[in-house]
Prior knowledge:
Rossmann fold, seven-stranded parallel beta sheet, alpha/beta, six-stranded parallel beta sheet, single chain
Amino acid sequence: xxxxxxxxxxxGVTLGGGHVMRCLTLAxxxxxxxxxxxxxxxxxxxxxxxxxxxxxxxxRTIEVGETGDLAGRFDLLVFDHYGLAAPEESQxxxxxxxxxxxxxxxxxxxxxDVLLDQTYGVQAxxxxxxxxxxxxxxxxxxxxxxxxxxxxNRAAALCRRANSGKSCRVLVSLGMTDVGGIAGRICGLxxxxxxxxxxxxxLGRKAPSYAFLEEICxxxxxxxxxxxxxxxxxxxxxxxxxxxxxxxxxxERCALGLPSLVVILADNQIKIADLMNRxxxxxxxxxxxxxxxxxxxxxxxxxxxxxxxxxxLGRTSAELCDGSGTRRVAERVLQLVAERExxxxxx
Length: 347
């Protein structure tokens, strides 16, 4: 039975594109199982997410507060939006058989039948007073929404980490919107460090740091910018350490056991970064909004000069996420949708 599945999700210059990207990952899993998907997103979202990254899904523009009267009815509607809560979600009740909310803040009430929070260490008690009685919860990094390429490359990546030599190839991936020009700041610091063989920078051509990075690449042959990465897992597999943000790409690095030096870019990244730092799964080097370049440089130097510590970070992080979360979510959610359809006589 083919179902119609909607996604209410936005991206923005400040917000970034992580919410849309993880929803696209889940949409791929649903489509692979024969279901159709529709994205309901803001006009700004279409400016941030390039057309070729939508995989041909049906995308319709909508503003916060609208309920997409022309979008039709959905068998399942997915919300992944910090600006929406129970009052807005309830407005869609008559238009969807099942409501799924993706959240990682646990700071507002939701009206949903299923809640997904892929945060490491999250507990059911965190949401007990925020969701309706009977809401099913999928909690923890075992449900991290990653593209299939990460599960497929996990074994090879872990084998490479176990047998790595003394090379130091650094991946810099701090979000497609390059908030505050953070990619340029980090690369400006890395070029002053010795002992680095290569630096691969993932950055969109419209990013604030792009022109500066081109200058660095011209002056320092160790640096290379990648603007159209189609298989991030392969690039991560080739690298020895990553400098990244504390968002959804955290789980990509964990799945491949890639040691991560994390820079916090937004408030919603603080909790997960703190938990993973205390667990010994990342190296926290600072907050881009409050840390000086001197502080960030000190953090980079401290970790990059300690190869054994980096290897331990990679081993610990690999235990938190195996890359198969998307499959688990898709199968479990579709099972719950079918159960609700039978219970309420919708089939």
